[in-house]
Structures are given as structure tokens and as C-alpha cells.
Design the sequence.
């Protein structure tokens, strides 16, 4: 009950925050030096998409660890991993889409096989594969275990994506927020809007994942219900002639 | 504004809205189906009580219904 | 039906196999691209000069900073300029419209090849690198930014 209220409040905050980010980003913030036609305005949505994707995969990684660890093993961690990864895939798709849209007018190309772009595309396909693997039929415990192992393997690409810009030669600029050196290369109201974008989309992630997690639980109960009916019927058949 | 900016914001907001609605709708539908089958399921259960020997590999209900 | 993906029937398992195959092929393609293109995305100007003989007329990506005062528009869709890096300079003739962000002082990556036996480079694509610094433009003042194209 209270959990439901917190979730609802998160949803409302996310909605208000995203709307405010769009308003500030599109109309209030100033243009940036060197960016014609207000093209800097894509700054407020593109990095937050990538950030949320990282958070989502981090959550899937943690949940999978908790599932694999015998003392914390519980099917709810498997559901959480699946829910978070699915939301992560949506945000990775949006990272690629907004990056492409931003790349065309600034770099001059929609796409190029630069290390950051290539490893991000890899990230997208890896987690699509993870979601497909989750759907491969089997004993629920076996499915959960192999999914958890796959989530740990896929996560290897996350740090590779983040550090690709410093490890290899890239067309992409260094991350706007440098977590290792704690630098922020954005000025004034632009920085505040970007921060709001990060917070709001993270809240949206939390809300979406919580609902997706609930849905997964409901789907599992439905599947069990179906199984119970099937068993009932079979039993009834067996009892009939006796 | 240049068309690119509008396209970027539209794709993000539209995708997230569509995904959110799809999750909510599926959640509501699953909940409705479960409550219907629970109401129907009460009868056969009294005829042949199988609650005790339910398949052990079935994941326990997490109470996510509420 | 689809609400119980874990216990799907034969039809759904065939669809899964197809999806799995597509995903494995995509992974293979991306790893190939990563190893061939992404690891060394471009050669710097001084590297290209040093490897001039072995590079021949092969197509590759070349990076350098556009030299101030070197940009000339030949025709509407052709631009010539020089790029330099590490003490080396290469003259580039580009066919095709340069991106709007293209300007002297910014690093670019051009796609093309050396012409004949010369040190001249013919490109058909310019990609502009911009930094991660976002500085608010003040409508009143135009000359806000100094020539500090310094990147770290």
C-alpha cells in the first residue's frame, strides 16, 4: 500500500521532471558557442538516455548476482533483472537514436564505426540477446540461472562503452560528466537543466522498472495458474474411469 | 530550432510514453485475468483439493498482486 | 498465450531460434566491425605522413586540426583546406558539402585517400569532432571563445 504510494509519487515526479527538462531544454536555456541552430539542446536528452541505460544494466547485474548467490536466491531477483534489462534496452535504443540525430548535423554523419558507437550498438544487441534468452522455454529455475549468468557476461560491455572514448581513438567527445575526475564541462543553467534531465529520466526508469517487475510477477502467477488447471484437468481425467 | 532537435525530443518522449502505457495496460489486463480465474478457480479446488501437492518447481507467489 | 513465454509452444520456439540466429549474426558483425574499424578509427596526420609509402592510395580515416586561414571553397560543393597534427600538415580536397560545424581550429576526421604519389589527400566525407565543453553563448558578445581548442 505504502509502496504503491511511493511508486505513484515517483511516477508523478518523473512526469513533471521530464516535462520541465523539455521546457528548459527547448526554450529557456541559451545557445552554446559553436553550435548552430540551437543544436546544443539535444545535450539535455542524449546523455541522460545513456546514463539510464547504464543504471538499468547495473541493476540487472546486481539482481542477477543476488539471484546466483545461494543465500539470497529468490525468483524476485530474476524478475527484477529481466524488468530492468528490458527498460535498459529501451533506453539504449533511445541513446542510439538521439545520438544519430545529434551526430548528423554536428559531426556530419548519422553513423560511423567509431569505438563508442560500435560498443554501444554491441550493448544493444547483447541485451536484446539476453531478453531473447529469457524467453527460451525451460524449467523456471534453469531459465533464471542461465539468464543471470548471461546478464553478468553482457555487463562486461558497460565499462567498455564508458571508457572506449579514452581507450581508443574516437569521433565522440569525452563524456560530458566525467565520473573519474568529477568534472562537468557545462555552464550555468545548461548544467542545471542537464542535471534535472539526469534525475527525471532516472525517476522514469525507476517507475517503469517497478511496473515492469510487477507485470513479470503477474505473468508468472498466471503461468502457474495455467499449470495448476492443466494438472487439475489431467487429474480429473485420471479419476473419471476409476 | 532545426528539425533535428524536435525529432530527438519527439522520439524520446513518444517512445517512453508508448512503452509506459503498454506496461500499464498489460499489468491491468493480467490483474483482471487473475482475479477472474481466482473466482472461477474456487469451485474446482473444492472438488479436488490439490493445494497441498502443487508442483514444487512453481515459483511462490511474491505478493506482488498488491 | 504470450503471457506465458517460458512455456511457449513449438511455434514460439521456432521464432526464438530465428531471433537467436539474427542476434548471433548481429553480434558477430559488430565484433568484426569493432576489430577492423573501431579499434583504430583513424590515423593522425603525422602517422599518415610517416606511413605514406605503405598507405599508397588506400582509403582510410585521417584526423587533424583544420589550419586557420587554409579553408577555400572551390565550388559550392567542394572545399580545400589543410589539416595539421604533431608537426605534420596534409592538404585536403573534399568533394561534398562540409558539415555546418566545420570551421578552422576544430579537429576533423576525413575519409579518403592520398592522390597519386603526392601528399595531397582527396576526401569525400568530413566528420567534425566537437569537445564536451558547452559554453553559453551571450547574444550581446560575439567573441566569447578564445582559440583554446585545447582538449584533454
Sequence:
Amino acid at each position: 500500500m505504502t509502496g504503491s504510494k511511493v511508486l505513484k509519487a515517483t511516477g508523478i515526479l518523473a512526469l513533471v521532471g521530464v516535462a520541465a527538462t523539455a521546457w528548459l531544454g527547448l526554450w529557456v536555456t541559451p545557445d552554446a558557442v559553436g553550435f548552430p541552430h540551437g543544436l546544443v539542446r539535444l545535450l539535455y536528452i542524449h546523455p541522460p538516455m545513456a546514463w539510464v541505460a547504464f543504471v538499468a544494466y547495473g541493476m540487472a547485474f546486481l539482481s542477477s548476482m543476488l539471484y546466483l548467490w545461494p543465500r539470497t536466491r529468490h525468483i524476485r531477483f530474476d524478475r527484477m533483472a529481466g524488468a530492468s534489462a528490458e527498460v535498459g534496452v529501451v533506453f539504449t535504443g533511445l541513446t542510439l537514436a538521439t545520438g544519430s540525430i545529434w551526430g548528423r548535423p554536428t559531426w556530419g554523419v548519422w553513423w560511423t564505426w567509431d569505438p563508442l558507437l560500435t560498443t554501444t550498438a554491441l550493448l544493444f544487441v547483447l541485451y536484446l540477446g539476453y531478453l531473447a534468452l529469457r524467453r527460451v522455454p525451460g524449467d523456471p529455475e534453469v531459465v533464471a540461472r542461465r539468464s543471470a549468468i548471461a546478464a553478468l557476461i553482457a555487463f562486461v560491455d558497460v565499462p567498455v562503452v564508458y571508457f572506449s572514448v579514452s581507450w581508443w581513438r574516437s569521433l565522440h567527445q569525452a563524456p560530458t560528466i566525467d565520473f573519474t575526475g568529477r568534472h562537468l564541462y557545462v555552464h550555468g543553467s545548461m548544467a542545471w537543466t542537464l542535471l534535472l534531465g539526469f534525475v527525471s529520466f532516472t525517476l522514469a526508469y525507476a517507475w517503469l522498472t517497478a511496473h515492469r517487475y510487477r507485470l513479470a510477477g503477474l505473468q508468472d502467477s498466471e503461468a502457474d495458474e495455467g499449470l495448476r488447471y492443466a494438472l487439475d484437468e489431467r487429474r480429473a481425467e485420471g479419476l473419471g474411469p476409476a | 530550432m532545426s528539425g533535428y532537435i524536435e525529432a530527438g525530443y519527439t522520439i524520446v518522449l513518444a517512445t517512453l510514453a508508448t512503452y509506459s502505457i503498454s506496461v500499464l495496460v498489460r499489468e491491468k489486463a493480467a490483474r483482471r485475468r487473475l482475479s477472474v480465474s481466482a473466482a472461477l478457480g474456487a469451485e474446482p479446488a473444492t472438488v479436488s483439493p490439490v493445494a497441498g501437492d502443487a508442483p514444487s518447481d512453481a515459483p511462490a507467489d511474491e505478493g506482488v498482486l498488491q | 498465450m504470450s503471457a506465458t513465454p517460458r512455456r511457449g509452444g513449438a511455434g514460439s520456439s521456432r521464432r526464438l531460434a530465428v531471433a537467436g540466429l539474427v542476434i548471433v549474426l548481429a553480434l558477430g558483425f559488430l565484433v568484426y566491425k569493432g576489430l577492423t574499424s573501431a579499434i583504430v578509427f583513424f590515423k593522425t596526420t603525422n602517422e599518415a605522413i610517416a606511413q605514406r609509402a605503405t598507405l599508397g592510395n588506400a582509403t582510410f580515416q585521417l584526423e587533424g586540426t583544420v589550419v586557420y586561414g587554409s579553408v577555400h571553397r572551390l565550388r559550392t560543393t567542394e572545399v580545400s583546406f589543410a589539416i595539421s597534427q604533431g608537426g605534420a600538415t596534409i592538404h585536403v580536397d573534399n568533394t561534398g558539402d562540409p558539415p555546418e560545424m566545420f570551421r578552422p581550429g576544430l579537429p576533423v576526421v576525413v575519409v579518403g585517400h592520398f592522390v597519386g604519389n603526392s601528399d595531397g589527400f582527396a576526401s569525400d566525407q568530413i566528420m567534425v569532432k566537437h569537445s564536451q565543453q558547452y559554453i553559453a553563448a551571450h547574444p550581446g558578445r560575439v567573441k566569447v571563445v578564445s582559440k583554446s581548442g585545447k582538449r584533454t
About this structure: Helices of chain A lie at 2-28, 46-68, 75-106, 115-134, 140-155, 157-167, 188-239. The two ends of chain A are 48 Å apart (CA to CA). The longest strand of chain A covers residues 177-178.
